[in-house]
Amino acid sequence: MNELPPTARLTNLMLGAMTTAAISAIARLGVPDQLERGPKTPEELAKAVGAKPDLLRRLMRATEAVGVLAERADGTWEQTELSDVLRTNAPQTLRDLAIYWGDDWHARAINAMDRSVQTGENAVELIFGVAPFDYLKSDPEAGLNFNRAMTAFSTTEALPIASAYDFSRFGSLVEVAGGHGLFLATILERTPGLSATLLELPQTIADMGETPLAKFGERVGIVEGDMFSAVPAGADGYIMKRIIHDWSDEMAGKILSACRAGVNEGGRLLVVDAVVPDGPEFSPAKFLDVTMMIFSGGKERTESEFGKLFADNGWKLERIIPTASALCIVEGVPA
């Protein structure tokens, strides 16, 4: 088969935006939820989700082309393994993440990428005049979608990351900025002899309610603090997931320096983030990096960039451990 000309290949790439929008629409409508108990006709689905049958079928046909939903020979539609994780009740649901990616404010910020690159300003601030987290506070629905999307990330990443590293080497572990503790709870579940501390901002702790950490009793403590100035001292390990990528080298360095000041002799630093490959090949990390560039002013880093960041703040990069997720464990030892 002859290779498509450049114009056709580029057109196909640009249609990626429509793929994201279509998947987001399927998630918002709740079509995968409706198929949880078995196949349905477009008419049955349309009645259940409040849509026009012919238009809904066209939307489903588009997502079928990328493996989301499938039409059977009898004209009914059924779940696929990809649409199954768009169910609300899926153990590792990505429905909220799909909805977040389709939010209007998020799409508008992405479309301001060129202006952000030209000015160096945050895309959300360029459009709405406020910092991203301030905008999310001003729009409760957007803020709720964002928080749910971040939880979705954690539910899909926690176990693969916790399974990729032997945490039994530690007697004590501090998770820096660990949210409501799902990731730390996953580590504790797999490491019976480990005690741990979760460091978070006062407002995050105040909003916690019942957390996944509650069942571990005295094995875990929750501490209020500012990760840029100090972390709980005297731990064998310090870990943070999707935190360092939010920040410039200067601000990230303050977090790493605080961990260096607190770590026990022979301890470890574990930064869980995407690692950008040096070559030209496709990598989700390269697009996550652009996302951080326009939303937070942070960055995804290459191995050499991690090495320099570690060295500048009292650590030596020991190794990078791949996981069965988009993230790696970047391990450091005191320099």
Can you give keywords for this protein?
335 residues; alpha/beta; Arc Repressor Mutant, subunit A; Rossmann fold; 3 domains; seven-stranded mixed β-sheet; two-stranded antiparallel ribbon; 17 helices; 11 strands; 47% helix; 17% strand; globular
What would you note in describing this structure?
With 335 residues, the protein is α/β, with parallel strands linked by helices. Helices cover 47% and strands 17% of the residues. The chain folds into three domains: 6-95, Winged helix-like DNA-binding domain superfamily/Winged helix DNA-binding domain (Arc Repressor Mutant, subunit A); 106-138, no CATH class; 153-334, 3-Layer(aba) Sandwich (Rossmann fold), CATH 3.40.50. It has helices spanning 6-14, 16-29, 31-34, 42-49, 53-64, 81-84, 95-101, 104-110, 113-119, 123-128, 132-138, 140-163, 182-190, 202-206, 249-262, 284-295, 303-311; strands at 70-71, 77-78, 172-176, 195-200, 220-224, 235-241, 263-273, 275-276, 301-302, 315-322, 328-334. Helix 7 (95-101) packs across helix 12 (140-163) and helix 11 (132-138) crosses helix 12. The longest helix has 24 residues, at 140-163. 35% of the residues are buried.
